[in-house]
Amino acid sequence: MRGPGKVERREPPARCAAGFEALCAAFAALRDEGEATRFLRDLATPAELEAFAERWRIALLLDEGAYSYREIAAATGASTTTIARVARFLKEERHQGYRLMIDRMKKTARRKEKAR
């Protein structure tokens, strides 16, 4: 336990870990946005894709730093619990996947802007 009401995260069983690694390798092999779109549409249900998109939008809004959780909830339809979870992963969790991709996309946008 990491605090009151917090459940410690456990690593998945080996068979799940191997499948997850293979999935990550598949994502890494994607060449462009079009391939990513095709793969995600095959892999996930429409509801799962909607949830992924919602979390990404929340991460972008949180990164802007200009909105409260309630404002983000109103703009996205997400619960404040979901927003808090995304905020925790954006700022505190060790994986830093949201941060990695937000920073990378900002860098790409700056390069494209300079090339104009």
Q: What is the percent of helical residues?
A: over 70%
What general form does the structure show?
Answer: globular
Rg result: 17 Å
User: Could you say which structural class the secondary elements and strand pairing correspond to?
Assistant: mainly alpha
Low-confidence stretches: none
Described by strand count, sense and barrel closure, the largest sheet is:
none
Strand content: under 5%
Mean pLDDT rating = 91
Element order, helices and strands? HHHHHH
List how many beta strands DSSP finds.
Answer: 0
Structurally, the number of domains stands at 2
First CA to last CA: what distance? Answer: 52 Å
Compute the number of helices.
Answer: 6
Produce the secondary structure layout:
Layout: H1 14-28, H2 33-43, H3 46-64, H4 69-76, H5 80-91, H6 97-115
Note down, in words, how this protein is organized.
- It is built from six helices and no strands.
- With 116 residues, the protein is mainly alpha-helical.
- The chain is globular.
- Helices cover 72% and strands 0% of the residues.
- It folds into two domains: 9-43, no CATH class; 45-116.
- The mean pLDDT is 91.
What's this entry about, in short?
With 116 residues, the chain is an all-alpha fold. The protein has six helices and no strands. The protein has helices spanning 14-28, 33-43, 46-64, 69-76, 80-91, 97-115.
